[in-house]
Amino acid sequence: MNFNNIKVSMRYLIRNKSYTLLNMAGLSAGIAVALMIGLWVHNEYSYDKFLNNYDSIYQVRRNYNSNGDTLNFTTTSLKLADALKRVPGIEFVAETDNFSRHTLKAGEKKLILTGGQVASDFLKLFDYKFVQGNASSVLSDPYSIVLTAQAAKRLFGEGNAIEKLVRFDNMHDLKVTGILEDIPYNSSLQFDFLVPFSYMEAAQSWVKEARTSSFSWNSFNIYIKLKDGTPLERISSQIRHIEKTETDSENAMNSDVILQPLKNWHLYGEYVNGKEVGGFVDYVRMFSLIGISVLIIACINFINLSTARAEKRAKEVGVRKVSGSDRLQLIILFLTESLIVTIIAAIAALVLVYLALPTFNQLAARHIHIPFYSLSFWSMLTGLVMITALFAGSRPAFLLSSFSPVQALKSGSAGGKGNHGLSRQILVVIQFCFSIALIIGTIIVYRQIEFVKNRPLGYNRSQLMVSDLNSDLSRNYPALKNELLQQRLVENITQSSSPATDIYWHSSIQWPGMTADETVEMGVVVTDPDYFATMQIPLKEGRNFRNIYDSTSVIFNEAAIKRLRLKAPLGKTIQWQDETFTIAGIARDAIMGSPFAPAEPTMFLCRQGMQSLLLYRLAKGVSSEQAIARLNTVFNKYSPAFPYQYAFTDDDYAQKFNTMKLTGKLSVIFSVLAIVLSSLGLVGLAAYIAEKRTKEIGIRRVLGASAAQIWTLLSREFFVLVLISCLIASPLSFYFLNNWLAGYSYRISIQADVFAFAGIMAVFMALMTTSFYTIRAACRKVVKSIRSE
Predict the structure, then answer these.
(1) Which residue ranges traverse the bilayer (predicted)?
(2) Among residues 51, 41, 674, 1, which one has the least CA distance to residue 380?
(3) Domain boundary among 655, 675, 705
C-alpha cells in the first residue's frame, strides 16, 4: 500500500467528516452484527471438539417402525450394549443411565447435583481431563464416585476430596476416587459427578435383570468409539439389524440400530422417518444468513454514499488523470480510502461487540468471548475487513476512475458514462428487501410463539409443582400426603413416572384388532388414582383407578384410542410386557410433549414403586412464597437426608420456547438494525437527487410550486423504491416462512396484515430519513437554486 495514498485518503476523510462518520457508523454496525453472529456460530460448532476422540465417538440410536411411521429414540437396552461389545471394529462401548439429579451428602452438606451412572469404559471413550486419578481405575470399584472440581469444592471445600465418602441418595457411602476438571460449557454432556454402572446394577435389581432379559427394555444410553481406521459404513451395516439376528422378539424385529456421530449431537437433534434432518442447526444457518444480510446492507450504504458524492470528485479525478495518474492508480487510491474506513469501522465494531457480549450471553445462555489471543480469530477478522472493504469500495473506485478527464475538468461532472442513479436504486431495493423480509419474519416468529403458548393443553399448569420422589419420600408418601392436605398447602398430590411437560417412557403394546405386522409405540405414564384430579385432566368415558392396587386396569387418552382404532373400548383387554390389562377409562388428550405437536398416544397405569416424581397443586389462596417455605419444612420432616427441591410446571413449559424466544428477540434487534441501516442508505440517494435537481427545483418554485409539492415530488421516488422492495420481499418471505411453519402441526396461518405492517414501517422509516434533504432542497432560496449550476 502506497503511503501517499494513505495520506491523501486520510486528508479527504477528515475534510468530509459528516460523510466519513456516516459511512463508518453504517459499516461498524454491520461488521459488529456479522462479528457477533460469527462468534456465536463458531461457538455452536465448537461443541465437543476439545475431546481427542471427537471424530470416532457415536451415540447408539434406534429407529422403530410404528405401523409405517419410523420413530427415533436414544434409549436402548443393556442387551444391545453387550451385543455391540462383540462387534469387531468397536473399541469401547459405554452404557449409561439418563444423567439425572441425585442427592450427594458429605457431612452436613447436602446438594442436588446432576450426574450419570456409567460403564467403566466411559472415561476412556470421553477423555475428560483429570485433576486427580486416571480413567483406567477410578470407576473400577462399584462403590466409588468421580467428582468435577467444582462439585468437590462445594462438598468438601478447598481440602483434598480423594478417599473421602459421599452419601449417595441416602443409600450408600461412595468413595471419591477421582477429580475431573470442570466440564467445558461447550460439552454436549454436562454433569457434576460419575458413578460406576456396576453400582447401579448392585443397588437396583431390575437393572441387573434388564441386562439379560430382552432388547425391549430400552431405558439406557449407549456410546461407542470405533477403532482407528474402521469405516463407519461397515460398522453401520453390521449393527443395523443386530437386534433381529439375536432375538425373535417382536419389538426387536421392528427396530433398526443406527449411529449418530458426536459432531452432530448438539446441532442435529431432529429425526424424521428415521433420518437426521436438522435441529438447532436450522437456527444457526438462519442467523448466519441474517449476519451476512446486515453486512451487505451496510456495504450498500457505503456504495450509495460514495457514488452519490462522485459528481463532487469529478474535477479531482480529472486533475489526477491530467497529472499522469492512470486508472489502476486511481482504483488503488479509492480502495485505500475504503480500506481505511473499514479498518476504523472494524475497530469500532470490536468495541461494540465487547460491550454487547455480556447482554448477548445472558440472552442466549452462552459463554462467548472475543478470543483476543487467537491467531485464527485475527486472521478471520482480517479477511472480513478485506472482503468488506473490497465489496464496499470496488463500485465507487471503478466508477470514479472511469470519469473522462476532459469532461470532468470542463463541466465538473462525469460525463459520457450514463446515469448511475439506476444502479443506486437497485441497491436500495435490495437493502429494503432484506429489511422487510426480516420484519415479516420477526412478526411471524412472535405470533407462532404466542399462538402455541396460549394453546389449550388439556390440563391446568397453574400452581402445579413437581419434585423428585426420593427413597425417603416414597417410603413416607402416605404420611406426607396426609399432612400436606391437612395443612391445606396443596389441593391434590400424586406420584408419577413423568412430569406434566414430558413423557419419559415409551413402549409397544398388543391390542384386539391389530394386524400381524402392525406395531404401535406409545407413551407410558405410571401413576396413582390421584393423577387426573391433580393434573385436572377430565375423563371422557369410563372410570378412574379404584385404588393404588388397581394394577390390572389401564386408561388411554383419546389419541391412543384413535391410533388403535378401538370401537367401544371400555372393558377390552390389551397386552403389555406379557401382562393383560383391562381398559377402564378414556382420558381427554393433554399436550405433555412438544407444544407444537398433537397429543401423543399415551396409556396410564397404576403401579407401586415405578414412579419417580411427585406432582402437587398448591391450594388456592396460598402465596407461592409462603407455600414453598412451609413445603420445605414438611418435606424435610419426612426426608431429612434430602434437600427440598421443586419446579413449577409453568416454568418447565416456558423452557420449551427458549430457542424460539431467543430467535424472536434477536430477530427484533437485527430487523430494527437492518431497517435503520437501509434508511441510512437512502441518505446517499436523497443527497444525490437533491443536488442533481437543484436547478429544476428552483424553476418549479418560480413557476409556483409549493415546498410541500416539491417534497412530494422528491419523495415519490423513494416511495416507489420501497414499494418495489415490498412487492419482491413479500412473496419470497411468504414462501420461506410458510415452509418453516409447515414443520409444525399446530401453527398459525400467515395473514396479509403482516406484509402491510412491514411495508408501512419501511415506507415510514424511508420517508423520515430522506425528509431532511428533500425539505431542505424544497425550502432553499430560489435564486441560489437557479444559480447553482
Answers:
(1) 21-41, 283-305, 330-355, 375-393, 426-446, 668-690, 718-742, 754-775
(2) 41
(3) 655
Contacts of 243 (CB under 8 A, 6+ apart): 80, 83, 215, 249, 252, 253, 255, 257
Question: What integer is the mean pLDDT of 754-771?
Answer: 84
Please give the Cα distance from 161 to 175 (Å, whole number).
Answer: 9
The b/e string for 635-660 (b: 16+ C-beta within 10 A; e otherwise) is beebbeebebeebbbeebbeebbeeb
| Amino acid (one-letter) located at 108 | E
Report yes or no: 146 and 164 within 8 Å, Cβ to Cβ.
no
The closest of 24, 29, 27 to 14, measured between CA atoms, is 24
Residue 536 in domain:
yes
Q: How many CB atoms lie within 10 A of CB 34?
A: 23
Q: What is the pLDDT of residue 417?
A: 44
Euclidean distance between CA atoms 265 and 511, whole angstroms: 36
Q: Is residue 617 within 8 Å of 530, Cβ to Cβ?
A: no
Domain-located, residue 483:
yes
Q: Is residue 621 part of a domain?
A: yes
Angle between helices 375-401 and 327-364 (to 10 degrees): 140
Query: What's the CA angle centered on 171, arms 165 and 172, to 5 degrees?
Result: 35
User: Which residue range(s) make up the domain with 599?
Assistant: 464-655
Most confident of 198-207, 396-405, 512-521: 198-207
C-alpha cell at 403: 470519469
The backbone region for 502, taken as left when phi is positive above 0, alpha when psi lies in -120 to 50, beta otherwise, is beta
Is the pLDDT at 648 greater than 90? The verdict is yes
Among the candidates 206, 238, 265, a domain finishes at: 265
Q: Are strands 579-587 and 539-542 parallel, antiparallel or unpaired?
A: antiparallel
Q: How many domains does the chain have?
A: 2
Assign 3-state DSSP to the chain and report helix, strand, coil percentages, each to 5. 50, 20, 30
C-alpha cell at 530: 390421584
**Is 615 in contact with 535 (CB distance < 8 Å)?**
yes
Contact call for residues 103 and 114 (beta carbons, < 8 A): no
DSSP one-letter code for 238? H
Mean pLDDT of the chain: 86
